[in-house]
Amino acid sequence: MLAKLVVNSTRIAITFTIVSVIFFALLIGILIHQWFRDTEDRAAASAIAAAHAVKINTGWIVEVAEQALHRMDLALGPDLAPNRNDTLERIEDALAGLPPGAKAYIISPEGRTLYTTDPNIADTDIRDREYFTAPMAGADFFASHLMISRLDGSQIFAFSQPLLRQNRVAGVAVISFKADLLGDLLASLALYPGSTISIVRTDGMLVARFPPPDGPVDLKDHVLFTEHLPRAESGTYTTISPVDGIERTVGYVRVPDTDFIAVASVSMAETMSQFWGDVRSVLLIVMPIALALTIAAVGIVRLLQKDGRRQFELEKALETNTMMFKEIHHRVKNNLQSMQSLIRMQALPETVKKDIESRFAAMSAVHEHMYRHDAYAALDARSFIASIVEPLVEAYGSPVALEMDVAEMTLHHERATPIALLLTEVVTNALKYAFLDRTDGKVAVSLQPLHADKAMLIVSDNGSGFRQDQTAQGMGSRIIQAMVMQLEGKSSYTVRDGVVFSAEIMVR
Length: 508
Prior knowledge:
Blueprint: H1 2-76, H2 85-94, E1 103-107, E2 113-116, H3 130-136, E3 142-143, E4 147-148, E5 155-165, E6 168-178, H4 182-189, E7 196-201, E8 206-210, H5 223-228, E9 234-240, E10 247-254, E11 260-267, H6 268-345, H7 350-373, E12 378-380, H8 381-396, E13 400-406, E14 410-412, H9 413-433, E15 441-449, E16 454-461, H10 475-486, E17 490-495, E18 499-506
Parallel strand pairs: 13-15
Antiparallel strand pairs: 1-2, 1-6, 3-5, 4-5, 5-6, 7-8, 7-11, 9-10, 10-11, 12-14, 15-16, 16-18, 17-18
Helix pairs in contact: 1-2, 1-4, 1-6, 6-7, 7-8, 7-9, 8-9, 9-10
C-alpha cells in the first residue's frame, strides 16, 4: 500500500512538473508577445506625441514668419526705401525675436537685394526661386520646400510675401530659416537614436528634416499621401523611409491653418533592439526561477498531499464545531422559549406579558435564523427581517396589510439582536395603537443601503398618528432609543397620514 502511494506520488510529481514547465513556457511566450505589442504601441505613442510637438513648433515658425514679414512691410513705408536710417531702425525692430540663423531679405521686382540681415550676402540670381516668383505672381503668402542655399550650401526653407505699393508688386519680403533648427527640438524629445522629425508641405515636398537629407525630397507618391492622409488628419503607421531606407514607426498630424504636415518617426531597429535586450534581461532572471520551480515541484506535491490530510482533519473539526455552534443557538432559542412559557404562567397584565413575550420572541428568532441558515457571520436581511415582522403581525391578529421592501444585503450577526428588538418595538407600537377600531390598516417596513456599512430603516403605518410631546417615555420608547444607540445610528418620527419611523443604522 505504501509502495503504491509512493508510485502515485511520483507520477503526480512528474505530471505536475511537466505541466508546470509547459505552462511556464507558454506564459513567458504570451508575456513576450504582449511586451512586443506594447513596445510597438509605445513606439507609435512616442511618434504621435513627437508629431504633435513638431506641429506646435511648426505653427510657431509660421506665425513668427507671418508677423515678421508683415512688420517688415509696415517698416518700409510707402516709398520702399529700406536703406534710410530711420527705415533700417524700424526693420531691425520688426525682425526682433526671430530664431538664430533666420535671415531677412527685401528683393526688388528685378531680383536685386535691397536689404538683408545676411552679412555674407553675395550677388546671386534668385529670380527662379519659388519664394520670389510666387509672390510676384500674386501669392499673398508663400512657404518654400527644402532648398540648398546658393550662398553657403546649407539647407534652408523660406517664407515670403509681396510688397504691394499703389496696387502693384513693388518687391518681395523674404525670411529664410536653417533647416537644422529642428535639431534642438529632436534632442528635447528624447526619442530613440535613429529617429527623425520633419515638416512636409501638403503637396508632398519636404520642407525641413532632422537629421537632414541629401537634398530636396518629393513625397507625394509615398504612403503618407497616398493612403494615410486621405483617411485621417493624424495617425501612425510603420514603413521604410524613402529618404534613408530605415524602417520606422511614423506619427503625423496636419498643422491647422497652414499647408504643412508635422511628421515624427521612431526607429524600429532601435526600438526592437531595446525590446530584445529587455527580454534577455528578463530571461536571465526567469530561467533560474523556472529551474528552481521545477526542482521544487516534487516537494510541493508532497506538501500538498500532507496538506490534504491536514485539510481533511480541519474539515472534520469544522464540521464538529459547526454542529456544536448550531446546538448552542438551538439551546439558547429553546431557553428563550421556555422563559416565554414561564412569563405566560405569571400573574401579569396581558399587555405586559405580550410585550415581554414579543421581545423574547425577537431574540429567539435571531438564534433560530442563525442555526437554520448556518449564518454566523452575516445574515440575509430580507429573510431575517421577514422572520421578525411576519410573526408579530400574526401574533396580534390584527387585520393589517404588511408591505416589505428590503434590499438584497447582509447584516452582521452582532447587529442582529438590536435590529430585531428595534423592529419588534416599532412594529408592535403600530399594531397596538395605530389601528384602533379599523380594518384597513397597513404597515410598511423598508431597509435600503446608504453605503457599505449603513442602511436606512423605515417603518410606517397609515394609522391615527400621535403627538410626540404627549407620548409617555415607557419601556418600549427606551428600548427603541437604546437599540438605535447600540446600532450607532439616529432616529426620528414623522406624523403625517400616519406615523413614519426612520433610523439610520449600522448594519455591518
